[in-house]
Amino acid sequence: MTAHTDPPDPYGGSDDERLPCGRLLSEVSEAWEDRTEDTHLDTCPYCRQAVEDLERLGSAVRSLREEGADEAPYDSSTIVRRVMDVVRLELRPGRPLPLGEPDEDLWIMESVAARSLRAAAETVPGVRAGSCRLRPVPGDGADGGTVELRLEIHAPSQARLPALADEVRTRVREAMDGALGMEVSAVDIRITDLVDEPADSGDAADLAEVVDLADAVDLAEVADVAGLAGAAGTEHAQEGED
User: Fold this and answer.
1) How far apart are CA 86 and CA 191, in angstroms?
2) Could you tell me which CATH number the domain at 94-218 has?
């Protein structure tokens, strides 16, 4: 009996993406940013395609930042929608994760599972789900073939946090087991902020997806642009007070 040891696109237990030629996406990105002379990078079709994707994404993100800075009055929903258009077009869906029984060859992409699990967490009143990371557990031990989850949330400032975290953990486990058929060995809930008023549900969901996709490919610049919604909104409010 196998234990999901042969995913269709292996990632070697790392959060980084490995291209078909064997290079890590982070290595290609670093060489591109440093303008390193690399014969493989210049001739490999997979690396060249990755560089072209990075150049398009970088150009689009810079354009969004410049457009966002010139907008008046400030509309956070507009920049969120444009950032999400770029992210959905340019970023990859993450690693494949095992589903079902150990002897079944069933897989789900990380970004698809993350969306379902964020939605499950947000069934707890007042909770906003953010970055959702899933890691397959390698090996033949008791936890081999299972998945570990780390989910960051914003919680209501008046909530009893231990009880809230337990409730979120329960909802997420139910979704992983019932809706996805994914065996989980650990669920790590991290409360990263306390909030007083609920945000617009559409913007909150889009911003959470930006953060999660940016995490998946280690592109901090995308997360920075998403953060313009908060930073520019604050600056606009301060200008109004002055």
Assistant:
1) 28
2) 3.30.70.1350
